[in-house]
Amino acid sequence: MMKLIRVDDKRMDQIVSAHVKRDYDPYEDIDLAVQKIINDVRQNGDQALFNYTKQFDGVTLSSIKVSESEIEEALRQVSEQEKAVLQKAADNIRRFHEKQLEKTWLDDGTQGMILGQLIRPIERAGLYIPGGKAVYPSSVLMNAIPAKVAGVKYVVMVTPPDQSGSVSPYTLAAAQIAGVDEILKAGGAQAIGALAFGTETINAVDKIVGPGNIFVARAKRMVFGHVDIDMVAGPSEICIIAESGANAKYIAADLLSQAEHDEEASAILITDSLPLAEEVQQEVIHQLDQLERKEIAAASMQNHGKIFIVDHLESAFQIANQIAPEHLELMISEPTLHLAKVRHAGAVFLGEYSPEPLGDYFAGPNHTLPTSGTARFSSPLGVYDFLKKTSVIHYSREQLYQAKGEITALARMEGLTAHENAIHIRFDD
Ligand SMILES: NC(=O)c1ccc[n+]([C@@H]2O[C@H](COP(=O)([O-])OP(=O)(O)OC[C@H]3O[C@@H](n4cnc5c(N)ncnc54)[C@H](O)[C@@H]3O)[C@@H](O)[C@H]2O)c1
Ligand SMILES: N[C@H](CO)Cc1c[nH]c[nH+]1
Ligand SMILES: [Zn+2]
Questions:
Q1: Rounded to 5 degrees, what are φ and ψ at 330?
Q2: Whose CA is nearest to atom 4 of ligand 1?
Q3: Rg over CA atoms, the chain
Q4: Which CATH number fits domain 3-23+235-352: 3.10.150.10, 3.40.50.1980, 3.20.20.70, 3.30.460.10?
Q5: Could you give the angle at the alpha carbon of 262 between the alpha carbons of 259 and 263, nearest 5°?
Q6: Which of 138, 146, 239, 390 has CA 20 to 30 A from 423's CA?
């Protein structure tokens, strides 16, 4: 089921790129469909949302907004123990993200100049929380808490309703714990269109964050520029580097933990040990059978489950950097000593007691991470995604006089005489 691929150093790049998908595009006409949905929402507002919710989620809604009484009822359905678990995870996530806060800075002005940077939160953030094939209260915490830590005043969450027209009580409990201000029942491209352009019920936001399926990802890409977005996150990915002697049961379990998300999720092992590779192959088959979502996990393993066999661990790191996976686990002795070799990954998990679900749910770092190789140039969702900067400039008369020659010379190089004049006019020359 997991394909074994031997990689020799000379042809590493070709072999790896032939086996690792980069883009996820199973439907040729997906952009057309998504554009049509967004245009419809822009023109017809709430009515388009009602229609698409009926069409794609199979439910006729009476209201898009989740009411106070629905939230109260949901909270009654979540046990105190479950609330405490959500609260503990939220505390860890908040503590981690508070370390990312940036502060406004300004020079003290003693040189007759003040240069600096104001840090301000965006005003309105829209969170997309997936709800098609599974419910994700953990994603509510991961997306809302950094926004609130950044100081965003208005955080609105959209998520598709289930067949009864409700939102999972766990999702609603997580939203309450994270301080989400408004919750709306809308999913897919139509929800992204509504957040970007607004409807009668939904006020447009400044930035849309959060993961979702291909319709959500494409819609986010289309509205980017009109609003900001965090990233275009694709299906989950895990890559494990393991050496001889690593625990095959743990490796198989961790690979399957991401495979169960989605038929398009990918799970990759890179090892210098053929016996370990074969053991993991068997273990995956054995453990798959016990999973509730075994059809999804099996399809994902069949489509994107790979084991690369290398001659030495150095090559394993080169391959992992080439893949730039969302999650990278190091199942090797003294993993921290090898951290410097990791160039591109969304999150790195060190040692056999740091399985990927620890990061998905609990440790504190964000689980919304760059996928499809985009860890080459982008970072996990964080407080910084909800902050923007404004530059501050002040010169005294004396400082401007000293810089006058250089500024006017630069203006002349560009042929911009009005710029030059704005300096001269202050000194009557
Ligand atoms: N990176 C992360 O942090 C993270 C976290 C959780 C989930 N995920 C990923 O998010 C994704 C969630 O996907 P999902 O489908 O379960 O939920 P989703 O909420 O993203 O998508 C469901 C919506 O898709 C739309 N849709 C479905 N079929 C359609 C069609 N034929 N045409 C137009 N629109 C259609 C509907 O509007 C529906 O409400 C998975 O890939 C999962 O792996 C990622
Ligand atoms: N692994 C997902 C990100 O790739 C996040 C998640 C949410 N719940 C479980 N897992
Ligand atoms: Zn996960």
A1: -110, 105
A2: 211
A3: 25
A4: 3.40.50.1980
A5: 85
A6: 390
What are the pLDDT digits (tens) for 359-387?
999 999 999 999 999 999 999 999 999 99
pLDDT, tens digit (0-9, with 9 covering 90-100), for 393-426: 999 999 999 999 999 999 999 999 999 999 999 9
Among candidate residues 70, 326, 352, 356, the one labeled active-site is 326
Q: Is 139 in the pocket of ligand 2 (CB under 6 A)?
A: yes
Residue 405 CA neighbour count, 13 Å, CB half: 1
Contact 369/233 with Cβ under 8 angstroms? yes
The SS3 assignment for 12 reads helix
ipTM of this predicted structure: 0.98
CATH 3.40.50.1980 holds for 30-229: yes
Q: What SS3 class is residue 156?
A: strand
Other beta carbons less than 10 A from residue 74's beta carbon? 21
Out of 129, 230, 261, mutate this one to test ligand 2's pocket (max ligand atoms within 8 Å of CB): namely 261
In sequence order, what are the beta bridge partners of 207?
Answer: 125, 228
Residue 164, judged by CB atoms within 10 A of its CB (0-12, 13-18, 19+), counts as exposed
Of 397, 341, 355, the C-alpha closest to 252 is: 355
276-292 b/e (C-beta count within 10 Å ≥ 16 → b)? bbebbbebbeebbeeee
Average pLDDT of the chain, as a whole number: 95
Q: Which residues contact 102 (CB under 8 A, 6 or more apart)?
A: 119, 383, 384, 387
